Each structure stands twice: as C-alpha cells, then as structure tokens.
C-alpha cells in the first residue's frame, strides 16, 4: 500500500512500484487519525478534477441543476443512553442492563456508542428510525454529471440547509446554473428565497398539502419548469449507481469526515465512468455523420 505521497507503507517490507495505489493505510491508529483531514481535502480535489473537463468537453453546467438527498446507513451499532444510569455493583459495567421497552428514542435522549456522528432518522411515518448520514448530490440535468457530493449529519432540515452552500461552492468553481430543480421538501419560503438570492430560478415541486407553495405560476408556466421536474428524477440513477456499483449503500467508516471522504471517492468514480461514455459518444458522432 502507498500513502498519499506514493511511499510504500507495508510494515517496512518492499512493495512493488507497479502495484496500484490505495488510500487504505496500514499504519498506527494515531498516525491514521492525523491524516483524516489531509485525505478528505485530497478526496475533494480528486472529485473537482473530474468535474473540470465538463467545460472543455462542451458539457458546461448552465442547464437546470438538481440537489437531492439520500441516506447513508451505518453498520448495525448499539444505541446507548445519553443520560447515564446508575448501575448496581453486581452488573457488568461494560454491558449494563438497560430496559428500553416503551421508551421513545430521539437524538436528544439517545446516541450511538460506536459512531456519535450518526443520527437517528426515519423516512416516513410508521417507519423505523435508523442510524444514518445524509448525502447531498448536485447534478446537472443535460449530461447527468455530478457537480458536487457532500455528506452531512441527518438533521430534519439538512437538505434545505445545504442548498446555499452547494450553489456558492459551484459558482466558486465557475459553474453558473440558471435553474435549480428539487422535490417538495425544498418548497419552503426560506429555501426558495436563498435560491433566488443567488440569481437562480427555483424549479422545485410545489407542496400544496394544507399549505401554500412558495412558487406560483410565474415560475411553473414556463416549459423549462416541466422539463426540470421530469429530468430531475435522473439523480436517482446516480444514487442507484453509488449504492450498487460504488458500494456506498452502507458506510464502512465511522465519523462524518471519513464517510464524506468515501462519498467523494465514489462520486469521483461515477463521474469518470460518465465522462468516458460522453467522450465515446462525442467521438462516434462525426463517424456516424
């Protein structure tokens, strides 16, 4: 195995130079922990490199763009009480007897004993609460390329809170989307205002279930709105690839930083596969003509 500088790290033994490099390091735990931040930055830079050819290849992101969230489940972990309970001297302090029957679990009263960064969240009413992270994908509609992919804590407002950050960081990398598509969860006054403040048209699905939508006919009457709502579902194909091919259905790492790094690497692999197909299609067009 190699570190980020390409030096062999395998117990001091010689490693062939033609072995593929890997981010898996066989080093002492304290050294590995010190490199988490450096590796996270490197993972983001590797992802940005795959987005850059979009402009040179004629796939510059000016079409409607979609931010969509998905879940990253953690491996089964014990849920321990945040409030310590007194235990008798006869109980095993490493495995105390705790009665959870009839209790309501929430992130205020309980947390994971193996990964405190993971939070309890349920997909809907009547569904079980699970320990998860939340992944946010920003995809351009015309070619299906990922513009950004970030992992955050699974809070109730994480998907809307990430919209300004995703747009600002995309513009810092010289991507200027004209519109931003999204599902009903983005149809709030604050979220729509944040989008418009950045001179982007909010193509979010209207949520009229007992409430008034934050957008009206001035936005929905245009053909681009209907097209954005139809094409935005393509982001589910990205999530499907990342879960089945990329192996990111369930994170194998503890902590937000490590899970975020893994997300960047999987997103990088997706963009590389997508770019190869786009280039092959572009090369075949003159031959077909």
Protein topology:
Elements: H1 29-34, H2 36-51, H3 53-56, E1 65-73, E2 79-81, E3 110-112, E4 119-121, E5 130-140, E6 146-153, H4 158-172, E7 179-182, H5 189-197, E8 201-204, H6 217-220, H7 223-231, H8 235-244, H9 256-288
Parallel strand pairs: 7-8
Antiparallel strand pairs: 1-5, 2-3, 4-5, 5-6
Helix pairs in contact: 2-9
Task: Describe the structure in brief.
With 289 residues, the protein is α+β, with helices and mostly antiparallel strands.
Shape: globular
Tell me the number of strands.
8
Low-confidence spans = 1-34, 75-90
Give me the CATH fold name of the largest domain.
Nucleotidyltransferase, domain 5
Number of domains: 2
List SSEs in N-to-C order: HHHEEEEEEHEHEHHHH
C-alpha Rg, in Å?
A: 22 Å
* Estimated helix fraction: 25-40%
Output mean pLDDT.
Answer: 76
Q: Determine the strand fraction and express it as a percent band.
A: 15-25%
